[in-house]
Each structure stands twice: as structure tokens, then as C-alpha cells.
């Protein structure tokens, strides 16, 4: 096991932005499979191994990267629409929450943090994902790919979420599970706490304030985390 210690930025955090896919819901593999199937139906043989590392980006980034097709073309819109149908119809009903997801959101609420969802998911998928992790009644402010011109790792979604909760970037932490979350946070001036449950490991989270296994791990060590009290340092075991 690796260990590191980082100091959080000066001042007390007042808000938390939450990614959903891979962070609160174990859905990253499902998204990749839905893309592969939608592409195959359009005559494009793209392997799962090519798609999976790009999950966490929106379709505006992923589709050109794996198939050299822009999302805003007729073919791109058709593939994207079919991916949504496959994901919502075939995969969403079978998804499970990441360990400790609802408990973490409840803890953040008890601690008085302002909360907002900052997800690259489409708006019509987001409600279903939040129901999977039991957070649909806990987070009122929500931003999705529909609220941003460009998806992660561009910071547009984070800027939209900051406007929703009315806080400056240096007063907020983003919880995410991909390198694209970390990159978006750095570009927006928002500190990031990363989770490994989305399929990436610590070396790929360069720039993150701290790294935890999953939401339950953060809950278990909350008081010593950058979101807790005391000296606001975090050691990863």
C-alpha cells in the first residue's frame, strides 16, 4: 500500500461538488459497454478496451477519440442517442451504488456543506443514477452535460455547479473517480478528492488533494480528511 500526506488549501471548505458515475454509482463499465454496442450497431467495431479508459469524458470528447466522429453530426447524434437508449434500458436497472455512497452524502449534509452534482452524464440519465445510490432526495443542485458546452476534462460543468451553489472555487472540493475529474478541478481552481472505485489508481490522480478507495473509505476517515476538522491533512493507507 502507498502512503502520502498533503495539506489542503488555506481556509475552510464550504461546499462539495459530486461526480456520480464511478463515484457514487458503479456504472463506468456499463457506460463503456453501451458505447461499444451503439457503435457496433452503426457499423463501427470499437473494442471495449479502447472505450473504457475514456469513460468520465462526455460524448463530445469520447466519440471523436474512439471513432473520429463529431457528436454534433447526424451520425454522431444517432450513435449518442442509441447509447443512451441502451444504457437506460439495459444497464441502468442493474446498477449498484458504490460502497458507502448514500452514507457519504448524508455525512456531508450533516456537516453543513453545500452540495451540488457536477456530472458529465446526460440530464435524463442523472435522476436514475441518483436513485441507484439513494441520493435523489439529498442533493438539490444538479448540473449535467446539458449545462456545459464542453465536458470534462474541460471545467465548464464545474463552473456551472459553482454558480448553482454560489461559492468561490477555493471554498469547494470536487469528489470524483477519474483523471478527467482531477484535470477539470485543476482547471477550475477546485480541489479534488479522488476515489479508486471508478477503475483508476493513485498514479493517475496527480494533483488530487487526497485519494480514497471509495465513499465508505472517506466516511470511515472523515475527521482526518481534508473535509474534516483538526489539522486538515490526509494520509492514505
Characterize the structure shown.
There is one protein chain. The N and C termini lie close together (6 Å). This protein has 237 residues and is an alpha/beta fold. It has nine helices and eight strands. It has helices at 28-41, 48-51, 59-67, 74-91, 101-110, 123-132, 156-165, 179-188, 215-220, and strands at residues 5-7, 15-18, 114-118, 141-143, 172-176, 191-195, 210-212, 233-235. The protein has two domains: 5-27 and 96-235, Rossmann fold (3-Layer(aba) Sandwich); 28-94, DNA polymerase, domain 1 (Orthogonal Bundle).
Essential attributes:
alpha/beta; DNA polymerase, domain 1; six-stranded parallel sheet; two-stranded antiparallel sheet; 9 helices; disordered N terminus; disordered C terminus
Q: What gross morphology would you assign?
A: globular
Helix content: 25-40%
Q: For the terminal residues, how far apart are their CA atoms?
A: 6 Å
Q: Poorly predicted ranges (pLDDT <50, ≥5 residues)? A: 1-11, 230-237
- Order of strands, widest sheet: 4-3-2-5-6-7
C-alpha Rg, in Å?
A: 17 Å
Brief synopsis:
The protein folds into 2 domains: 163 residues, Rossmann fold; 67 residues, DNA polymerase, domain 1 (Orthogonal Bundle).
Give the arrangement of secondary structure elements:
Elements: E1 5-7, E2 15-18, H1 28-41, H2 48-51, H3 59-67, H4 74-91, H5 101-110, E3 114-118, H6 123-132, E4 141-143, H7 156-165, E5 172-176, H8 179-188, E6 191-195, E7 210-212, H9 215-220, E8 233-235
Parallel strand pairs: 2-3, 2-5, 3-4, 5-6, 6-7
Antiparallel strand pairs: 1-8
Helix pairs in contact: 1-4
Amino acid at each position: 500500500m502507498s502512503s502520502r500526506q498533503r495539506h489542503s488549501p488555506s481556509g475552510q471548505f464550504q461546499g462539495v461538488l459530486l461526480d456520480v458515475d464511478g463515484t457514487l454509482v458503479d456504472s463506468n463499465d456499463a457506460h463503456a459497454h453501451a458505447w461499444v454496442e451503439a457503435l457496433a450497431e452503426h457499423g463501427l467495431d470499437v473494442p471495449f478496451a479502447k472505450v473504457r479508459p475514456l469513460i468520465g469524458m462526455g460524448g463530445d470528447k469520447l466519440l471523436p477519440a474512439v471513432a473520429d466522429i463529431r457528436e454534433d453530426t447526424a451520425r454522431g447524434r444517432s450513435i449518442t442517442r442509441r447509447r443512451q437508449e441502451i444504457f437506460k434500458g439495459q444497464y441502468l436497472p442493474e446498477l449498484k451504488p458504490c460502497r458507502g455512497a448514500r452514507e457519504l452524502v448524508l455525512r456531508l449534509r450533516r456537516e453543513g456543506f453545500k452540495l451540488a452534482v457536477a456530472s458529465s452524464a446526460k440530464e435524463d440519465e442523472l435522476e436514475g443514477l441518483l436513485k441507484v445510490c439513494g441520493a435523489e432526495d439529498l442533493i438539490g443542485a444538479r448540473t449535467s452535460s446539458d449545462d456545459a458546452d464542453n465536458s470534462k476534462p474541460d471545467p465548464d460543468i464545474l463552473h456551472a455547479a459553482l454558480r448553482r451553489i454560489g461559492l468561490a472555487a477555493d471554498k469547494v472540493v470536487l469528489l470524483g473517480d477519474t483523471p478527467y475529474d482531477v484535470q477539470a478541478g485543476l482547471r477550475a481552481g477546485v480541489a479534488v478528492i479522488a476515489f479508486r472505485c471508478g477503475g483508476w489508481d493513485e498514479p493517475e490522480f496527480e494533483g488530487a488533494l487526497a485519494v480514497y478507495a471509495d465513499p465508505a473509505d472517506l466516511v470511515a476517515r472523515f475527521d482526518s480528511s481534508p473535509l474534516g476538522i483538526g489539522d486538515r491533512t490526509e494520509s492514505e493507507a
